[in-house]
Amino acid sequence: MDVINTIGRRKASVARIYLSAGEGSIIINGKDFKEYFPQGNIQFNLTDPFTTVEVENQYDVKVNVKGGGYKGQAEAIRLAISRALVKINADYRKPLKDKKYLTRDARVVERKKFGKPKARKSFQFSKR
How far apart are CA 74 and CA 44, in angstroms? Predict the structure, then answer.
């Protein structure tokens, strides 16, 4: 198996991953994923696609991610990993789709409107 590359997006984050056969290391922007994301629930988000299809410690992942915050970046990486696993084996599609890991979450921040302090919030109204 050679290197498989896919892309994942979430909010303002874009993650490009390169998946190859290996012993299960995940390198994000030159750092180990446990160093890049110290929160345990975020680390679980990244490794859960491998756990879902029962292929832990079989693939190495190299990630380039930019934009957004840590949660958006983690979910973008999760989407890219799920897409790469489906490229490897089409049988992985059903379990990943059942957990909604192959769905691109299209929700992004609404733009600020003029005459308002935020996107929808208004200044206090005074009748008199």
Answer: 10
Three-state SS at 4 = strand
Count of other CB atoms within 10 angstroms of residue 91: 9
CA distance 46 to 31: 14
Cβ(16)–Cβ(73) under 8 Å?
no
Q: How far, in Å, CA of 114 to CA of 38, rounded?
A: 38
CATH code for the structural domain at 4-98: 3.30.230.10
- DSSP string for 75-88: HHHHHHHHHHHHHH
pLDDT, one tens digit per residue, over 6-55 is: 999 999 999 999 999 999 899 999 999 999 999 999 999 999 999 999 99
Distance of CA 115 to the CA centre of its chain: 35
